[in-house]
Amino acid sequence: MATTTKAKTAPTAKKAAPAPAAGKASKAGKVATAPASAVASSGAKAWAGLTEAQILAQPESEYMSKAQLAFFREKLVELRANILTNATDTGEHLRDTEVATDPSDRATQEEEYTLELRTRDRERKLLKKVDKSLRMVDDGSFGWCEETGEPIGVARLIARPTATLSIEAQERRERMQKLYGD
Predict the structure, then answer these.
(1) Helix ranges (DSSP H) in 17-102
(2) What is the pTM (predicted TM-score) of this model?
(3) CA-CA distance, 52 to 49, in Å (whole number)?
(4) Between 129 and which of 39, 162, 164, 167 could a Cys-Cys bridge form, CB atoms 3.0 to 4.6 Å apart?
(5) C-beta of residue 47 within 8 angstroms of C-beta of residue 71
(6) What is the mean pLDDT of residues 72-81?
(7) What average pLDDT score do residues 133-137 get?
(8) What kind and span of H or E run contains 46?
(9) Could you give the CA distance from residue 160 to residue 157 in angstroms, rounded to a whole number?
(10) What b/e readout covers 25-56, taking b as 16+ CB neighbours within 10 angstroms?
């Protein structure tokens, strides 16, 4: 009888349970994701186990689900870390450079510093938007237009994760600014 038991269990031990499709909720309520090896082989970057293509392929009923919020949270956290790393690198770069004696070399060096500092200033402003977006993810308001309350759209959020207005509301705001100034 022991040989019969081994014969029955050996084949089932080799079989792997089929994984649910990416983005589909399992019975436990957790969203299954593609294996890391599948994501790595496709070359697509994944946040919270989901790629941008998988997020875009999800139905509208999944808009700002827990899985999508986790995706955008990780994307925002990574963006924040990159900004902070760039700021640190800039600080080190400005401290480590030697003074040029030739006036044209000095002018070139100062122009490079100016461009680098201007870029860091833009990133400083972006950092505030990233922090605001992370707070919005936490309170559940992320992905919804601040003016109209309508969905901003997954494609827009993937392209610009700090967006707080839908495309229509942003276009209206830009038209008003053009007409009446800031």
Answers:
(1) 36-42, 52-57, 66-96
(2) 0.68
(3) 10
(4) 162
(5) yes
(6) 96
(7) 96
(8) strand 46-47
(9) 5
(10) eeeeeebbbbeeeebeeeeeebbbbbbbebbe
